[in-house]
Amino acid sequence: MDGIHDVGGKQGYGAIDVDEPDLYELGKAFNHDWEAREWGISRCARTPDINIDWWRHCRELIAPIDYLSRPYFDTWAQTDFATYVDGGFFTLEEVCSGYSNLGSNPLDQAPPKTMKKADAIIADRQNTCRFDAEINQAPLFSIGDTVITNQHGFSGHTRLPQYARNRVGKVHALNGAHVFPDLSAQGKKTHQHLYTIVFETGALWADCVNKNDKVFLDLWETYLSINGLSK
Questions:
Q1: Residues 94, 151: one domain?
Q2: For residue 7, is it within any domain?
Q3: What CATH code is carried by the domain that includes residue 197?
Q4: pLDDT confidence of residue 230
Q5: Is the pLDDT of residue 94 over 60?
Q6: pLDDT (tens digit, 9 = 90+) per residue, 35-81?
Q7: Which of 1, 19, 95, 210 has the most crowded Cβ, counting Cβ within 10 A?
Q8: Three-state secondary structure string covering the chain
């Protein structure tokens, strides 16, 4: 992810609006009703062919002008429709027309029984996926080890942000083995040890004011080495 989509730690995008009203205090979860519908669509988009890492990779293919100018959930919708078309669930023609080519309108069918909100929440939790697993390999690094992150990124999807590359930190915690996102985005499911790495902000941004503040990142084993060489 070496494109405009990785903006963490970058300057020049203007001040962050810290005065936006707290939606939860207002008893709302979304600013607009269409955002709630998009959230529901996105929840349905998780299939074996559309895992979270592939979805993120597709979102990172959005043109820069689109990505920076469209509302957050609008880019979600753009990604969902792209992955659905790519997965063969419907065609681009159907998206543009708003109608299915199947010859029948699902809205004409009998509506499903309405599920109570509490039951829907329970059902949603039961459908969650696990991304951790037991593996035979022992962790290469231990708590307290000083490590350095990779200098270069990956041409596809990666969870190693640009601002944390070729930076020195320490292993703060071992989190077991989890699906490695770089390969998962390519449809290859493997597991690697996942570590919480703590960095001093001065090691990430030389011109920051509070250089002794801490930043904690969860990073996979492939992203790390000791003195530039694997332990």
A1: no
A2: no
A3: 2.30.30.50
A4: 47
A5: yes
A6: 999 988 887 766 667 889 999 999 999 999 999 899 899 999 999 99
A7: 1
A8: CCCCCCCCCCCCCCCCCCCCCCCCCCCCCCCCHHHHHHHHHHHHCCECCECHHHHHHHHCCCCHHHHHHCCHHHHHHHHHHHHHHHCCCCCHHHHHHCCCCCCCCHHHCCCCCCCCHHHHHHHHHHCCCCCEECCCCCCCCCCCCEEEECCCCCCCCCCCCHHHCCCEEEEEEEEEEEECHHHHCCCCCCEEEEEEEEEEHHHHCCCCCCCCCEEEEEEEHHHEEECCECC
Give the structural domain span for 100: 33-126
CATH for 92: 1.10.472.20
Q: Which residue has the tokens 């941004």?
A: 205
Residue 11 lies in a domain: no
Provide the token pair at 28: 């709302």
